[in-house]
Amino acid sequence: MTAAVHGVNHAINGVTEKVNGIHISNEQELDALVVGAGFGGVWQLKRLRDEGYNVKLVESGTDYGGVWYWNRYPGARVDSAIPHYEFSDPLLYKEWSWKQRFPDSSELRAYFTYAAKKWDLRKDTLFNTYVESATWDEQESKWTVKTKDGPTLKAKFLLLNTGFAAKRYTPDWPGIESFKGTWVHPSFWPHDEPDLMGKKVAVIGTGSTGVQLATDLAKVAGHLTVFQRTPNLALPMRQVDYTNGDQEIPRPEYQSLFDHRKDSFSGFSFNFVPKSTWDDTPEQRQEFYQSLWDKGDFQYWLATYYDMLFTPEANKEAYNFWRDKTRARVKNDKLKDILAPMEQPHAFGCKRISLENKYFEIFNQPNVSLVDMKTNPIESVTETGIRTCDGTVHEFDIVICATGYDAITGGLTSIDIRGTTDQTLKETWKDGTATNLGMSVSGFPNMFFTYGPQAPTALCNGPTCAEIQGDWIVDVVNHMKVKDLKKVEVEIESQKAWAENIWKLANMSLLPSTKSWYMGDNIPGKPREPLIYLGGVPTYYKTLEDCAKEGYSGFKLS
Ligand SMILES: Cc1cc2nc3c(=O)[nH]c(=O)nc-3n(C[C@H](O)[C@H](O)[C@H](O)COP(=O)(O)OP(=O)(O)OC[C@H]3O[C@@H](n4cnc5c(N)ncnc54)[C@H](O)[C@@H]3O)c2cc1C
């Protein structure tokens, strides 16, 4: 018996059928099931297969790329410069050439297609396959994983690479369903590009996505209205086109660069300088800030004085430089005060810093206006547009709701995961997240995740995290095989110690002083807690290494 879902046939009751062109039997038993086809999942599928395991990858989308599969909105591009933002395998990087220093979403998708071909991944990948639930079977020491309208799979290891952005968030403004125009979350951007030329367009939200969208749409929209709740302290990107095929960093230097990503606080090849803001004279400081500013990338954020994220005065100094630079780019005094206020709105760098390409200049255009949601919030959505609290109805053909995600934990808690008790992961984390090493949870044996809570995650370059965490997970799997073990489980005491460490590090920084998704603030009812490990990649890497050397201390192996 077969059933067709999204044009895909799958097996029911144990009959082997073809899913996405690959043979899969219901309740097929695997060494590992990898969920998610972004950097994390793809790296693990490749590594585990190289080690000879029987492994499959399932992905709810129809192709590789993870966030770059979903995010096709105008202007979507990565803020991590290449070659940092790619896999470290010479088989890939020796032949792949990028067109730009910060590639756009379509180029990143092309890169994933190339990687999938080189690594021959498709034969072990099931697309259109959303994991709904996973249940631990204590007798068998295996996970039973159910997919929506698809096969059920059994695996010794459940490896979740569901990313930080799998659960979209739209505020529940009254009347959204009554809007007669197009309402879209940018990560569900239609594959058939809508024609926005001359249209009345709203972009709600000025996170990284909002900034990128607004910059691009200001060029085509008849009128663009940007709704800003919080100023984005965005930095100049300094894009470079590699039109002649020459990449900025020569290929022979790549391997060393990849090897040293783990030595950088944020997984790139730069670090905070071992100098306080006040070690320099005011003139030296201006010169140093300017040099970082000119380099573009995240350097003004993550290659600056070491005390910038930790002391309010140092942070304010960094803000003031940013503010003066930015205000000089905006002509209208009122808009200057909304976009780059004289008074620092929040700690610099404690919300995700975005990179921009002439974003602030769009507000000098006659077809662009800005609504300050701090003083004039959205009250409701009408048939024709958005009503703000001052009573104005702003009319739109299309509203792009760039309001982000239930970030970092939402993708994991959306799956009904039950471990050694009947309590789901969502219930387990109801009052706060608890993990060991930001990769595993007590009561959920043989389950690991990457780019999740209590790890460097959003403060770390994506591929760096994917490889560091993925390699560590593969080592655990190998260790279990060599020692003929069935079950690896977090000890509750090590989990408690890790949570304390997360808070301790966060409290040393300015992070808790700022409302952001790093602290769970953007989702009503979400516990307020640091979702990110602030010790930096080198310390995190060493902690993982030590844990492995000590025979996986903090874990019970049986
Ligand atoms: C708009 C945007 C811009 C970003 N820019 C940067 C940047 O500049 N630099 C940087 O380092 N990082 C950036 N990131 C972070 C980015 O998430 C990482 O760089 C990297 O892509 C993480 O890879 P991943 O494999 O962990 O997750 P993802 O790329 O998010 O992939 C996860 C995949 O899992 C799938 N999935 C989720 N749940 C299920 C389920 N239940 N069943 C089946 N499949 C599922 C999803 O469909 C998705 O394809 C950005 C993220 C976003 C959203």
Automatic annotation (TrEMBL):
InterPro entries named among the record's database cross-references: FAD-binding_Monooxygenases, FAD/NAD-bd_sf, Flavin_mOase-like
Matches recorded under PANTHER family: L-ORNITHINE N(5)-MONOOXYGENASE-RELATED (PTHR43098:SF3)
| Keyword field | FAD, Flavoprotein, Monooxygenase, NADP, Oxidoreductase
UniProt entry tagged with the keyword NADP: yes
List, separated by semicolons, the cofactors it needs: FAD
- The entry's protein name is FAD/NAD(P)-binding domain-containing protein
Q: Which family does it belong to?
A: Belongs to the FAD-binding monooxygenase family.
* Source domain of life: Eukaryota
